[in-house]
Amino acid sequence: MNYLFLAVASFLAVAVQMIAGNIFFAFGLLDIALIMAAWCAIYRSRVQALLFGSFTGLLMDAALGWPLGYNGFGLTLAVFVIGQSWDRFNTAEQPLMRFLILAAASLTNSLSMFLLFWIMQRTTSSIFIGSAILQALITSVAGVIFFIVLERYKRAHARKAH
To answer: What pLDDT, in 10s, does the model give residues 59-115?
Structure first.
């Protein structure tokens, strides 16, 4: 059942990102799949997060018409960075550290895709690096806000239960 939830969440993340990206430019730079994969790596199993990242990346490749594996590889590396960094650094109540970890993961994702394009001798745009940095900033800010809201909701819900 857990894997069915992850598959549905993966499909929804890709669908929402594609629809929202067509409506407003900034949503095209927001990497919803990375935020969902980070949630998976932090609050669920890291193995599930790696599977979520690779499956979501493959779905994104299929939706974009890219060769299969570019986004899957990049998102899997990004989830690995998040999973390894989140426990090693004190992220509790430190939005700056969370921002840096999410930004590093987003840049890892973008850089790995850029390197794959370069290795496979595919053409890339000259604005790729600039858009990767902008995407890292937007995704990191949205991710930090998401995790703050999620943790406050959990605390408030835990208080009501007692």
So the answer is: 999 988 888 888 999 999 999 999 898 878 877 778 899 999 999 999 999 999 999
Domain range for 73: 2-161
CA distance 127 to 142: 22
Closest CA to 33 of 124, 137, 160, 142: 142
Domain count, the chain: 1
How much is the pTM? 0.89
DSSP letter for 2, please.
Answer: H
Q: In whole angstroms, what is the distance from residue 155 CA to residue 158 CA?
A: 5
Cβ–Cβ < 8 Å for 101, 82: yes
- What is the phi-psi region of residue 65: left when phi exceeds 0, alpha when psi lies from -120 to 50, beta otherwise? left
Residue with tokens 């407003």: 24
Distances (CA, A) of 67 to 26, 32, 98, 116, 120: 25, 21, 31, 10, 10
Domain containing residue 140: CATH number: 1.10.1760
